[in-house]
Automatic annotation (TrEMBL):
Residues 2-113 form the C-glycoside deglycosidase beta subunit domain. Belongs to the C-glycoside deglycosidase beta subunit family. Pfam families: CGDB. It comes from the Bacteria. This is C-deglycosylation enzyme beta subunit. One of its GO terms (molecular function) is lyase activity. Keywords: Carbohydrate metabolism, Lyase. The lineage of its organism: Bacteria, Pseudomonadati, Pseudomonadota, Alphaproteobacteria, Sphingomonadales. It comes from Sphingomonas pokkalii.
Length: 136
């Protein structure tokens, strides 16, 4: 239901030195209407043009500092509220590729009353925020 709202399209930016980016980041929202503790986020898969990036390269930050996906498993005191933007950081040498590309995010969530994980996915054609601003 909320899948089309997961990725904030205009938020993609490179991280690290401008001349040699070490990764990229973008803003995302939770695809569940109540919000969850971070320990209930089982998976955050990020792909560029259909190529899944390694789990170990993904970090999550809801505003209290970045966590690896493994660290999120025991983050019982941290919460991702519905409607709140979180930053997804990805280690990716060279940063986000130049030009427009397909960015995908899949969230797998453990919902207390569901006997199966909830899976939400969003894919958008995006480009770096700086490049988008310069073109406008």
């Amino acid at each position: 239901m909320f899948d089309k709202y997961l990725i904030e399209a205009g938020s993609v930016r490179n991280t690290g030195p401008a001349e040699a980016p070490t990764g990229f980041a973008f803003e995302a929202k939770l695809g569940y209407y109540r919000g969850l503790t971070l320990s209930m986020v089982e998976k955050l898969d990020v792909a560029i043009d259909g190529n899944l990036l390694p789990r170990e390269a993904v970090r999550f930050d809801e505003g209290r500092g970045p966590l690896t996906l493994d660290e999120m498993e025991t983050a019982y005191d941290r919460r991702w509220a519905f409607g709140a933007k979180a930053t997804i950081l990805v280690e990716h040498p060279g940063g986000f590729p130049a030009g427009e590309h397909e960015l995908s995010l899949t969230e797998q969530l453990r919902i207390s009353y569901l006997p199966f994980p909830a899976v939400n996915s969003d894919t958008k054609r995006v480009k770096l925020a700086e490049a988008a601003d310069a073109a406008a």
